[in-house]
Write a structure and sequence with these properties.
CATH superfamily of the largest domain: Aldolase class I
CATH class of the largest domain: Alpha Beta
Number of helices: 16
Strand order of the largest sheet: 1-2-4-5-6-7-8-9
Largest sheet: 8 strands, parallel, barrel
Number of strands: 11
Order of helices and strands: HEHEEHHEHHEHHEHEHEHEHEHHHHE
Bound molecules: flavin mononucleotide
Oligomer: single chain
Radius of gyration: 19 Å
Length: 320
């Protein structure tokens, strides 16, 4: 399927950037309600899938409205990566994304994520193997500008095109930068000239930035941290009207996770999201502390309810 077709029904060419520990199936569904074009799962280990790891499979749940979703895999063994994408759990996704940008030490040490930036030949083999395994289904590659500098970024983008990727998402930081400083979009026009549609990623939170990225040659943008606690960022970017009811959204997130996970796990997941939902609102300090100490999902939801009862003016946000 062409990238144009993938986004044919989307109000804007936006991707919810994958974020381990955050872009769970419930959060993806919430972002979909606010107009995101494509979502991506948290990264899943190709090796763990092939070994039948049940916990890894839990990252592959999805809700019916999350109907344009790629599964992101990481690995460095072309045959293992090619095998896992044929499994029914992965075949149900609209496409596959390969992680070639993760800077986390444990991942890099294992030869995965951004380690592949240092070995474009192996990266190319991984891309080709996965593309051959999934056939006409779209394949994207997500990578950073480079390890210490951006000298090889354009060549890496060209390699992705030659190896068979359908589009790329580029986080315009180096591995060395981790998440510090600002994304540097200087090379975007050159990377956009490499033969593949490019989704620009890094620090994007507004429609103005989105339009600027399109002007510079991007096909679309991927938004990660800008969506945490603020799923309406996708409506902003797409120029849509929206209304977010935070207690309801948090309640939906909790109830959805509880369908699949034990309370303790849900509570820990939810805490992180609730802190983002409360960010920037008035007098949240005590609630945030209490949420982080809470022992159950019910307790967290109770604290959320109490906060919004105290400050009903923050319970909803709309641009209508
Ligand atoms: C907590 C966290 C987890 C992340 N996990 C992943 C991941 O699993 N796969 C991936 O490709 N990128 C991951 N990223 C990187 C984001 O997808 C994105 O490239 C980065 O945050 C820059 O975009 P932003 O400024 O819009 O957040 C993660 C980032 C954060 C903050």
């Amino acid at each position: 399927m062409s990238v144009e077709k993938l986004f044919a029904n989307a109000p804007a060419k936006t991707i919810l950037a994958p974020m381990a520990g955050y872009t769970d199936f419930a959060f993806r569904s919430i972002c979909k309600n606010y107009g995101v074009g494509l979502t991506v799962t948290e990264m899943v280990s190709a090796k763990a899938l092939v070994m039948g790891n049940e916990q890894t499979k839990e990252l592959l749940y999805r809700l019916p409205n999350d109907n344009n979703c790629f599964c992101q895999i990481f690995g460095h063994e072309p045959d293992v990566m090619a095998e896992c994408v044929t499994y029914p759990e992965l075949a149900k996704f609209e496409g596959i994304d390969i992680n070639m940008g993760c800077p986390v030490k444990k991942i890099v040490k294992g030869g995965d994520g951004s380690a592949l930036l240092e070995d474009p030949t192996l990266a190319s083999k991984c891309i080709t193997a996965v593309k051959n395994a999934i056939g006409s289904k779209p394949l994207s590659v997500k990578f950073r500008l480079g390890v210490d500098d951006d000298k090889h970024a354009v060549d890496f983008a060209k390699m992705c095109a030659d190896a068979g990727a359908d589009f790329i998402t580029v986080h315009f930081r180096t591995r060395k930068q981790m998440y510090a400083g600002h994304a540097d979009y200087t090379l975007l026009p050159q990377i956009a000239n490499c033969g593949l549609p490019v989704f620009a990623n890094g620090d994007i939170t507004t429609r103005e930035q989105y339009l600027q990225m399109l002007d510079m040659g991007a096909f679309g943008v991927a938004i990660g941290r800008g969506a945490l606690g603020k799923p309406q960022v996708f409506s902003d970017v797409a120029n849509l009207t929206y209304n977010v009811n935070f207690p309801q959204t948090i309640g939906f997130h909790a109830q959805s996770l509880l369908l699949h996970f034990p309370d303790k796990i849900v509570a820990n997941e939810l805490k992180k999201h609730v802190c983002f939902y409360l960010k920037g609102k008035r007098s949240t300090k005590n609630t945030v502390v209490a949420v982080n100490l809470a022992k159950s999902t019910e307790q967290i939801l109770q604290l959320v309810e109490e906060y919004f009862q105290m400050y009903p003016q923050f319970a909803e946000v709309t641009n209508d």
